[in-house]
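Reviewer 2 asked us to include a model.

Predict the structure of this chain.
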Amino acid sequence: TCASAAQPKGEAMPSRVEEPCMWYVVQTVAGREFAVCRLIESLVEDDVLQECFIPQYEIMKKIKGEWKRRSEILLPGYLFLITDKVDQAADELRKVPAFTKLLGNDNAFIPLNADEIAFIDSFTTKDHRVVEMSEGVIEGDEISITKGPLVHHTALVKKIDRHKRLAYVETTMFGRTLNLKVGLEIVRKHNNKPV
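Predicted model (structure tokens):
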């Protein structure tokens, strides 16, 4: 288990200092993310792996003339591991009969920093790693998000595709600038033209 930030009163400090849990990114083949995550969960020891997940986002898709809510992968070709034993996790990943590569440089695996973790945590929950649909209105040239995970992240929205009900969000993660798609329904548009 991962180290807890607060030690309960009256309990002795553990003799071995536990490492904090860190988030790591694993690259794999796009389209195989869920299969690889299941393999990792079955082959990597429970005391090594806290969580393996694939962030997703909700989107509305027109299927046979009807709009239906679907989930898509937020970062195709990547999945996330939460562990306090990254070297052991890296060794155990070698047992997985699929392409898996822990992101890092030279001889070090680089965990996500606090801002990157906060970004994912602000859009998803541990039980539900899916960015839900947001809703917004357009007033003149301004967008106002009224509901959903984008409410506090309007500044990150770089572009909107009203037809596909998508917002394009820009963020930096694992040393790269990423343009991510998330679901956004514009429920109203006002032009605010002078009379």
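The radius of gyration is 20 Å. The longest strand covers residues 176-190. We have added this to the supplementary material.
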